[in-house]
């Protein structure tokens, strides 16, 4: 399989974030771009380079060739060949350009466009909206300013009876797939940073917020073993100890998860590592974290990731550049 097969070509990672993921310095990336013609970053509205998941895959492929002893020039040739589209020029589909940044209401307008596309079951249009917003905003701003409000709005419409649960499930499945792809590219578990085990509490099925926090942590150099929805606390504790994790992150979004968590909280006795709590329920009642024997992570994915990373790395973690990172 080609290194870029199935990978999005949307620019979404800054040079510094790619350096964390691949170990390739930003200066080397620029040298490869000038000398070999890859990767192919785009520029965001502030002029900073943004690399796509396909770019990251190509960079990793180049690294694997170099680590195998292949000379740089030959490694670059192999990378270009491996990432070249297999279709003839006439067969290569031309993607529609992403929409221009909406006027008025800023980020809220992006969220409204995404909500409308998802509720119309138009995933092509939803993809175009996300491609456009990624060209204008850093990934974490996309999560907090576009994806999160979209999730809240869709949930509110379901509660008001304006849409069916089928609409909500389809929208959630689509956003889950997009976040999962970002999580995969943002960093694997085999790095050298501290390991956090992230899971939804028992009876908790809503996992998109935890996925966003996982993504934010990985972008800060923290390894995350993501376990997903509805994880029994006893199994979570066993897994965390076996993996020699440095911390556990547990998400609760409603009272349906609180009762089940309290009922099995003793399974976390003697965990021997920090226990962080997050999710909508904790945002509404942060004091619950202390009651449950842990600490409140924070109100959103970037701030929670910042707090957890700082605690585990032993010094204040440096957040991504607000305008997109190094150029």
From TrEMBL:
SUPFAM superfamilies documented for this protein: Cobalamin (vitamin B12)-binding domain (SSF52242), Putative DNA-binding domain (SSF46955)
Chain spans, region Disordered: 84-103
Domain B12-binding: 193-319
Taxonomic superkingdom: Bacteria
SMART domains linked to this entry: HTH_MERR
Comp. bias intervals (Low complexity): 85-94
Pfam families: B12-binding, B12-binding_2, MerR_1
Domain HTH merR-type: 12-81
Protein's UniProt name: MerR family transcriptional regulator
Natural source organism: Deinococcus aquaticus
Organism classification: Bacteria, Thermotogati, Deinococcota, Deinococci, Deinococcales
């Amino acid at each position: 399989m080609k290194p870029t097969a199935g990978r999005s070509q949307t620019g979404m990672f800054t040079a510094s974030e790619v350096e964390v993921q691949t170990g390739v310095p930003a200066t080397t990336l620029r040298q490869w771009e000038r000398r070999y013609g890859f990767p192919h970053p785009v520029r965001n509205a502030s002029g900073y380079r943004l690399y796509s998941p396909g770019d990251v895959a190509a960079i990793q492929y180049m690294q694997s060739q170099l680590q195998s002893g292949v000379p740089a020039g030959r490694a670059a040739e192999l990378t270009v060949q491996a990432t070249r589209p297999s279709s003839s020029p006439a067969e290569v589909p031309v993607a529609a350009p992403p929409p221009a940044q909406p006027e008025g209401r800023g980020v809220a307008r992006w969220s409204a466009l995404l909500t409308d596309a998802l509720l119309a079951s138009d995933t092509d249009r939803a993809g175009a909206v996300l491609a456009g917003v990624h060209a204008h905003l850093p990934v974490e701003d996309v999560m907090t300013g576009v994806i999160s409000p979209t999730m809240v709005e869709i949930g509110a419409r379901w509660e008001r009876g304006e849409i069916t649960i089928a609409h909500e499930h389809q929208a959630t499945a689509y956003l889950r797939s997009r976040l999962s792809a970002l999580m995969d590219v943002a960093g694997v578990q085999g790095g050298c940073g501290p390991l956090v085990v992230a899971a939804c509490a028992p009876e908790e099925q809503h996992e998109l917020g935890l996925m966003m926090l996982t993504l934010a942590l990985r972008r800060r150099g923290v390894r995350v073993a993501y376990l997903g929805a509805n994880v029994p606390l006893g199994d979570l504790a066993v897994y965390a100890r076996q993996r020699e994790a440095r911390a556990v992150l547990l998400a609760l979004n409603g009272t349906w998860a609180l009762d089940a968590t309290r009922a099995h909280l003793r399974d976390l006795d003697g965990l021997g590592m920090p226990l962080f709590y997050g999710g909508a329920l904790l945002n509404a009642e942060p004091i619950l974290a202390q009651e449950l024997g842990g600490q409140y992570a924070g109100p959103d994915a970037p701030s929670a990731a910042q707090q957890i990373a700082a605690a585990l790395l032993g010094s204040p973690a440096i957040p991504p550049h607000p305008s997109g990172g190094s150029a």
